[in-house]
Amino acid sequence: EEFKIPKGTEEIAPMTFSGCENLASVEFPLSVRTIGEAAFEFCPALKKVTVSKWCEIADDAFDKSVKIHRL
C-alpha cells in the first residue's frame, strides 16, 4: 500500500502508522517538520523513505531496517 501525506502537514504524531504491515511507500511533503516516536514502527513492508533535511525524526520513529534519505 502507498500513502501520500497531505501537503501542509507539519507533524506525524507518535504511533500514527504503527502496525501498518502492508504500508510499502509513504510520500512526505516538504512541510513535514517532525516525525514522532514509533510513528512507523512495525511496518515491515516499508523499506525506505525520503524526507526534508529539516525534518526532526524521533530515534525510534521507523524500524531499524528502513533507509532514510534526506532532501
Task: Please sum up the structure shown.
With 71 residues, this protein is mainly β.
Topology record:
Layout: E1 2-4, E2 11-12, E3 25-27, E4 34-35, E5 48-51, E6 56-57, E7 67-70
Instruction: Give the fraction of residues assigned to helices.
Output: under 10%
Structural class category: mainly beta
The separation of the N and C termini measures 23 Å
Shape assignment: globular
Write down the oligomeric state.
Answer: single chain
Strand content: 25-35%
Number of helices: 0
The H-and-E topology, N to C, reads as EEEEEEE
Largest sheet: 3 strands, parallel
Can you count the beta strands? 7
Rounded to the nearest angstrom, the radius of gyration is: 11 Å
Low-pLDDT residue intervals, each spanning 5 or more residues: none
Q: What's the rounded overall pLDDT mean?
A: 95
Instruction: Identify the strand order in the major beta sheet.
Output: 2-4-6
List keywords for this structure.
71 residues, two-stranded parallel sheet, three-stranded parallel beta sheet, mainly beta, globular, 7 strands
Structural description of this entry:
By secondary structure, the chain is mainly beta. The chain is built from no helices and seven strands. The protein has a three-stranded parallel sheet, with no helix packed on it. The protein is globular. The chain starts with a strand and ends with a strand.
